[in-house]
Amino acid sequence: MDYSDFLATTARIDSWEEWLDEWSRTARVHVALAQEAQRGGHRRTAGEAWARAAVCFHFAKFVWVLDAARSRAAADEAIAANYEAHALLDPTAERIEAALDGSRLVANLRRPQAPERPPPLVVLIPGLDSTKEEFFQLENVFLERGMATASLDGPGQGEGGYELAIRPDYEVAVGALLDELDGRPDVDLERVGALGVSLGGYYAPRAGAFEPRLKAVAGLSGPYVFGDCWEDLPSLTRATFVTKSHARDEEEGRAKAFELDLSGVLPRLAQPSLFVTGRLDRLIPWEQTARAAEEAPNGRLVLHEDGTHGCANVPYKTRPLIADWLGEQLA
Known about the structure:
alpha/beta, de novo design (two linked rop proteins), 2 domains, globular
């Protein structure tokens, strides 16, 4: 998001209870700008404003589990704003729904402009309480390099999390998405990769170990055993995991966190795999990601000495690196 939005919004917040309302207030500033631009016929300006609104609505409810109804209302506004941005900036984007366990997963599919042949596909996997609405700019990094993207709300994430809880076997979500896309002529399902961010950095290699349709995987700041991080996680993160895993209380949530464990899984990950992290990560210690890279048969570790969690402070290093690597693997 825009750093000025971050400064202005957080300056108005004195307590965690105010977080959702103040970020929603900022989001509505961008909604008003989008609507004004649309009335004036400025489609790109409107689309960019809708994209900013979507991110602000998303972070309004991010790890904010004080009121489920208000959190979902903000999430719905983020979804709606993101689709407004799609309509103006990438009208070929599609909403994909895939069935799983009597419920559904939802993904946003985007494709590069005028490819010479069906492009490879990269499944973008969010982390804890991250969602597909967070990934518009990240998607563009892959699209500009000739790859299609499918940003996925899996179990416990966004629209996939209202009925489906976080689960360790994330390959079922990736498999359901690829089953839904099967037979499409506009993406090459023989060339599919995945990138997972934060907790998604556990999901992506786990999926690759059991889903042979994934030809390469990348994990950014992912845990090896999420439960090992539990005691040092912020209380907001723990509370969110309890909610998204549908646990009864923190004790059960902690037990479920230990189920997210790559022990014995990584030897199955025969595909090329890239693990990226930052030495300054205070959420998932860099050693967790390094251990995964060491155990993966074809794993490669990139450690940014100055990187924080998700290397969010050095995206100009991390995003092109991962996109170029996946592009090479899927070429």
